[in-house]
Structure formats: structure tokens, C-alpha cells
Amino acid sequence: MIDIHTHLIPNVDDGADSEEETICLAKAAIEEGIHHTILTPHHNLNWFKNEKDKVINLTKKVEEILEEANVPLNVSPSQEIRMNEEFIDELLAGNYLPLDKEGKYYLVEFSWGDFPSFGKDYLQQMLDHDIIPIIAHPERQKAFLEDANLLKELIDMGCLSQVTATSIVGGYSERVRQAAHDMMQANLIHVIASDAHNVTERPFNFASALKVLEEEYSSDYKEYLVSNAEKIIHSQQIETFKK
Q1: How far is CA 235 from CA 2, 85, 100, 229, in A?
Q2: In sequence order, what are the beta bridge partners of 106?
Q3: Tens of each residue's pLDDT in the chain, 243 residues
């Protein structure tokens, strides 16, 4: 399995706080059945500035750390990019890292508060350039929790969205858990990821989430959310789930 949203790079954001934590997270990923994680440190979020070249170099460092620790986890560089007013200019200038080598998919995060006034316009500009935004964890964001139609509008435009494994199993709150399931039932979710930050408070919870998907939805739907991660990393087209 591939996890498209993780915070394993040490000491760059609110994720891993040491090389030891990075190794622990990598071992946990392997135990969950994950063989490849995309490293997506926060960028443009508060004081977290993790520019393209910096992330590429730090990903190579993580590869070295894992090789020395004999942890067989593949990693690749990307970013969880907070949308701000400079977002679209920076994106089109090539200053951000996509999730895939061809630059088709980018992981986009919005403010935990209000949805930005320029949000829909910037997303449409991405789509007009054949770039597909993947909206990170909408089930945990105030704007989507308070406006059930907002995510549908963005998906109808052509955006995709990523649900967090911990949300599915109720690891944040009942409201977030319910929102995640409402979004999945409405066919507004396209891929599952961990958003793992550490092994205690924000772990992977991948196996537990997949069990819930198997029991409460179907093996086909579980496979859809899992296999789309591989499609993303290989720049392949993602279709809507056929119920």
C-alpha cells in the first residue's frame, strides 16, 4: 500500500521530532502493510516553510536514515501546501512539489477556519492547467463541516479529496468521524491516507480504518480508496467509485 500524506521528516513541522521518531514511524508503516510513503511536510502553514529543494534534500536524508536502520520503506518527496494568496503564482512557477513525477496531483490544505475567498478561483486555475488538487482531510476542516455542499461543489469542479484513516475509526471526535462517513457515503472521497505525525497521538491507523471500510462498506470500496494512491503516484486518472 501507498500512503500519500505523512509527516516523517524530522524537525521540520509538527510531525516527527527526531530521527528516532522517523524510524519508529517507518517501522509502524511497515507493520500496517504500507510499503511507500510520500513525505508531505507542511508548507506555508504558520511558521512552517518547507520549500521544494529543502524537502527533496531532506527526503534523501530520510532514505539514508531508514537504510541505516534496515527499514524497507520507500519514500518520495512532496508537500502539504496551505493555500494562501501567493499559492497559484508559486504553483505555476514550479515552486511546489507534486505527489507524482509528472506534476498532475498536488496535496492542498485549507485554513482550519474559513474557506478562502480566492479558493474556488485558484482551484479552477489548477484544473484549467490540467493539475488536479487533492484536498487534504476535508472531514476535519471547519468550512466543510459547516457547509455540507462546499466539498461537493469542489468535487463537481474536478477536485479530489483525501480522508484520514484516524477520522474513519473515530480517533479525533465523533463529529469528525461522522463527517468522514457522510462524505464517503456521498461519494466525495477518493483516497485514504494516514496523515501520520507520530506513533502515539497521531499514528497511522491504516489497518483499523481498512477493517472498518471492509465491514461497513465493501471490499470493492476499500480497494478503491487504497488503489487510488497508487494511481496518484503514477499520474493515472482517477474515476468516481461505481456503487
Answers
A1: 14, 27, 6, 10
A2: 133
A3: 999 999 999 999 999 999 999 999 999 999 999 999 999 999 998 788 999 999 999 999 999 999 999 999 999 999 999 999 999 999 999 999 999 999 999 999 999 889 999 999 999 999 999 999 999 999 999 999 999 899 999 999 999 999 999 999 999 999 999 999 999 999 999 999 999 999 999 999 999 999 999 999 999 999 999 999 999 999 999 999 987
Antiparallel, parallel or unpaired: β 105-109 and 80-82: parallel
**Separation of alpha carbons 212 and 112, rounded Å:** 26
Whole-prediction pTM: 0.97
Strand partners, 38: 76
Pull the grid cell for residue 152.
461537493
The C-alpha atoms of residue 212 and residue 43 are separated, in whole angstroms, by: 31
Q: In the structure grid, which three cell numbers stand for residue 215, read together?
A: 465491514
Helix axes 119-128, 148-157, angle to 10 degrees: 20
Distance of CA 164 to the CA centre of its chain: 8
Domains of the chain (ranges plus CATH)?
A: 2-233 (3.20.20.140)
Location of C-alpha cell 503564482: 89
Query: Which helix H or strand E contains 228, and what residues bound it?
Result: helix 219-233
In which order are the strands placed within the sheet that holds 36-39?
Answer: 2-6, 36-39, 74-77
